[in-house]
Every structure is written in structure tokens, then in C-alpha cells.
Amino acid sequence: MRTVVLRFFLMLFLASGLPAIAAPANASGAEPITVNRASIVYATRAGDTLMSIAERFTTRIDNWTALSKVNNIGSDTAIPIGTPITIPADLLQDEPSEARVIALSGSITANTQEGQPLLLGLGAKITEGMQIDTGNNSFLTLELPDQSRISLPSNSRIRVAKLRMARYTKSPRTEILLLNGKVESRVAPLEQNKGKFEVRTPMAVAGVRGTQFRVGISANGTATEVLSGKVEVGRPNGRDGQMINAGQGNITNGKAVGKPVDLPPTPQLASAPTRQEQSGAQFVLTPVPGAQAYHVQIATDQEAKNILLEGHAKDTRLRLDGLPNGSYYARVSAIDRLGLEGPASTHAFTIGSAPPAVSGPLPASPTVEAGEARQLALRWSGAPGQQFTVQVARDPAFSWLVYTNKTSVPEARFPRPPFGTYYARVQVNHPDGSASPYSLAQPFVVTDQWIIHDGNPISAKNAAAR
């Protein structure tokens, strides 16, 4: 009778169309994982223990004790199926990462971990173990997957000691070994994803969670300069740590990890850069109390990713050679007696050809006449065959030009400007490339109906007295 009943229920079960064995929750074989910013959550399967989970997902099997604390599980025993196990990102295994070149100029050399030379260009991939050198007036900027940036100025050498990311969460794990010169890093925030970014030298290690800072090697030791955020500086063995805040720096040498000191204040450009000879440019900075030197970098972009030239000077005047005509950005900073460099100010500027040599007598100033309804006319005395430069400005120093032109006749017409006071002057250009001084400035007033001037030109020196 029992056999008949069992057969009856078996036939009924099969007839229902239900499977005899339930399919696993994830038939594709993929791990049942939820990825968060700073951790993953694993849903356990049959037979899982903390030790087996640690071996599969983390860097060491003995991390099971850390998992025990995080998940409040007291012992390494079989865990019920479907139990959520949180695994922090800093315990997860590594995966290879890479950086890419986003700006470079000058002479850059690179070698693979095996010592094979590489030719770097824009977009080139940088991987772990590579060594990179910058030559004189040569610059390189790298970008990591999280948009952190690493910039190398002139005469610097780094080795990419570690370039990895955590499996699943992609948390960065970057370590730069500075062998010579300097490196500036702008690190994306790492607090939430538990990433890691370190710059090491033979004497010090600087670790951050998201900040902008510089590390340099000099005769005094390793200099760390924090521009934003915080940086922890210590020995390579992890001892004698110092926390360096924004606006501070320190020197680490063979004797000690130096205490934080304030970085020098930021200088400004005292005036617009001027052309010196054919390709030189003169920069004049405002003085900073206590500064022992000044640093100027020239870039094509405001963030200074693409730097073209740089120079140092012991006073506030600095000349840079090899700068073509064009528009640029200057980053200027001060350096104190310890060799620590302060924050930089950034200035947009345009530089053109050098002014011609001045020779000859002072030409007569132009007269101003109303031309057609929408024009003004300037006239001055001149000889046949002469070439002239004529300028009109809103100020007697001619820093605010509204009109400039070269002409071969002693007359110029230009659109009638808005109501206001203006100044006009003229210069004679000689065949040998030299030029006369500019004439005295002729002031005039434009109204809705009249052009008013008294016929008395002035110099920039006595303009304020009028």
C-alpha cells in the first residue's frame, strides 16, 4: 500500500511540470555581488565560510578575521545561504590600472619595467613599473582613471611603483617613487572609495586621500608643499608622521621629519610681460617678504596641464627665452629660505614682437577732425614715402587701445567712438626697421554732435595734471 501511495505522489509531482531540483539563484555562474563605492556585499552560497570568502576575494586568507569583525560573525563556520557579507574595498584584490599622457613638451624619455625604451606621445598609456624622465625645459602631465593628475616639471625622474585599482570598486591604488626633481599631484577625493595615493622618496612618504601637493628632492632633503587638503608625511618605515595642512610645508631629511611651517605668500605679476629681443620675454613680479627666489612657469592653459617654459630667479625680474608670439598663462610663486615653494598665482597674457628701436625726432601730434557722420579723421604732417603707426586710446598711457593702424599716408579714418575722452598719437617707421618716438598725445572729447579738442597735446607724465 505504501508503495502505491508513493508512486501516486511521484506521478502527480511529475505531471505538474515542476522541476525535481530547484535551479541555483544565479545559473550563469557569476558571483552574487553588490558593488558599493567603498565595499562589496557578497551573498553566500552553500558551504561558504569566512576563510573561503577571504581567500577568494581579498589579498590574504587570514583577512577572515577582519571580515568577522565587519560582519559580526564570531567564528569561521559554515554560513547560511544568502547571508550578506560586506567586504571593504581596502581588503579587495588588486587589478592592473593605467594612466595616460594628456600633455607633454620638450625632451621626455620613458622605459618599461623591463628597461625597454618607449616613445611617449599624447594619449600614450602609462603602466606600473615604468620610469619617466623630463629634460631641461621639458614637462609631462599624466591623468589617472579617476581624473587625478600627476605633473612633472623640468629635470625630474619618477618610477610608477604601483598603478592598480581594487577589484569591483575600482578604488585607485597609486604609488609614485620620486627619484629626482619634483612632482606635483592633484588627487581626486579618495575618502569615500578608500583609495590610496602616495609619493615616496628615499627619505619620506607622503600619503593623501584627495588634495593638491608637491614633493621635491633637494640638497636640504625631501620638501612637501600642500596647496589644498591635507598630507601625512612620514618615514618610509611608517614612523615619525606629521600632518601637513593646506598652506603648509615641511622638510624631511636624514635627521628628522620636519615640523610644518607656513608656505611663502603668493606673488603677482607687477606688469604685463614685455618682449626682449627676438624671443625673450621679461617678467616682473611683486616682491614677497622673506622670499629667497621666484619661480615662473608658462603654460598654454589656465590649469597648467601643458607647460612650455619655466625659470627661477633670485630677484623679482626674470627673463625666459624661446617664447613665441601668442597668448599664454603665467604661474608665479615664491620660494623661502628652506626651499619651500608657495602657492602660485595665474595670469593670462599676450606677447607680441619686440618694439622697434627708437630713433629720430619727435613727430608732430595729429589733429582731430569730424569726418563723415560715423567717422573721425586724424591728420598729421609727413613726408612722401614715410610709413606711420597711429593709435587712439581711452587713457594717456595708451594701455586701453581702441584703434591702431599702419599707413603710408599722413591721415587715418576710423569709426566714431562712443561719448568720452580719447587720446591720439603717431609714430614714424623708418626703412631700417627703427622708429621715431611716439608724438605727444592729442586729447579730444567725442560728444553726440561735436568733436572737441584744444589743440594742445600732452605727454603721459603731465596727463594727470590736466
Characterization of the model:
The chain has 4 domains: 24-91, Membrane-bound Lytic Murein Transglycosylase D, Chain A; 94-262, Jelly Rolls, CATH 2.60.120; 274-351, Sandwich (Immunoglobulin-like); 367-465, Immunoglobulin-like. It starts with a helix and ends in a 14-residue tail after the last strand. It is 6% helix and 42% strand. The strands form 7 sheets. Strands 4, 6, 7, 9, 12, 13, 15, 16, 19 and 20 form a 10-stranded mixed β-sheet that branches. The protein has a 9-stranded antiparallel β-sheet with strand order 8-5-10-11-14-17-18-21-22, with no helix packed on it. With 466 residues, it is mainly β. The model is unreliable at 1-28 and 461-466 (pLDDT under 50).
Summary keywords:
466 residues, mainly beta, Membrane-bound Lytic Murein Transglycosylase D, Chain A, Jelly Rolls, Immunoglobulin-like, 4 domains, ten-stranded mixed β-sheet, nine-stranded antiparallel β-sheet
What is the CATH domain class of the largest domain?
Answer: Mainly Beta
Quantity of strands, as a count: 37
User: How many structural domains does the protein architecture include?
Assistant: 4
The radius of gyration computed from the alpha-carbon positions, rounded to a whole number of angstroms, is 35 Å
SS content category: mainly beta
Number of helices: 3
Beta-strand proportion = 35-45%
Distance between the termini: 128 Å
In CATH, the architecture of the largest domain is: Sandwich
Helix proportion range = under 10%
Mean pLDDT: 87
Spans where pLDDT lies below 50 across 5 or more residues: 1-28, 461-466
Shape: elongated
Under CATH, the topology of the largest domain can be stated as Jelly Rolls
Largest sheet: 10 strands, mixed
